[in-house]
Amino acid sequence: VLSIFAFATTTSHSTSTKFSAHCINRTQPVTFSYSYPYDLTKVCFSQPVCGAGTKNATDSFCLLAGAQSAAQFYVFVGVIVFLYCLTSLVFYIVFDTLYRRYSRIVVADFIISIVLTVLWVISSSAWAAGVADVKTYTDPAEGGIIGPTSKVTDCQKPGSCTVDHLGNFASLNVSVIFGFLNFLVWLGNLWFLYKETPWFKVQAKPPMQPGAVSETDPQRV
């Protein structure tokens, strides 16, 4: 369930940013939308902004960067964890006797869970940085749209362009929280899986009492 929330809050998110260019005789609003997988280099709008919708608009400006690789990696981890959870659930219920009989299956389950735990912390950290990048590059004031060094000619002068509306990133913030929550849950889950492995059972085996004879003792009559 936690893995579903993690990748669902990422893939279902969609928002937009709006700013206005103050032209000579009018105000020209510009709105650009973005969503998963957040390849912001493909998010463009026509310029010069004051010539939008006319034959004067001969060029386009695209956002500087995005978080496509981090978003796709995060969703990939969430999906494979979800599928592994379903597989494990069926195996625990239907093949419980087989699971307890063969220690190799238990060890394999433990090792795979370690790998998934590591993937959760790596992907969540990368996605947290990716969300920060998305927020930065979709902000006209920070993403190179408004300012003296901007490639948008109509927004280079101070006060020539103003931000009307920034994107809503509540869903992405929640997705990052779910990512680290998944990591903590799987980290705790490793302890319970470790207790099923032969390594723990050998350590937890009670010592023999003095004078007791082992059932495997060859001298036992």
UniProtKB/TrEMBL annotation:
The UniProt entry, under PROSITE patterns, shows:
MARVEL
* Membrane spanning residue stretches: 73-95, 107-129, 174-194
Q: How does it sit in the membrane?
A: Multi-pass membrane protein
**InterPro entries linked:** Marvel, Synaptophysin/porin
Its cellular-component GO annotations read: synaptic vesicle membrane
List each copy of the MARVEL domain by range: 1-198
Q: Write out the annotated subcellular location.
A: Membrane
Task: Identify one Pfam family in the record.
Answer: MARVEL
Please tell me whether the keyword Ribosomal protein is annotated for this protein.
Answer: no
- Chief place where the protein resides: membrane
Keywords, ordered alphabetically: Glycoprotein, Membrane, Transmembrane, Transmembrane helix
The record's family statement is: Belongs to the synaptophysin/synaptobrevin family.
Q: What is this protein called?
A: MARVEL domain-containing protein
Its source organism is Candidula unifasciata
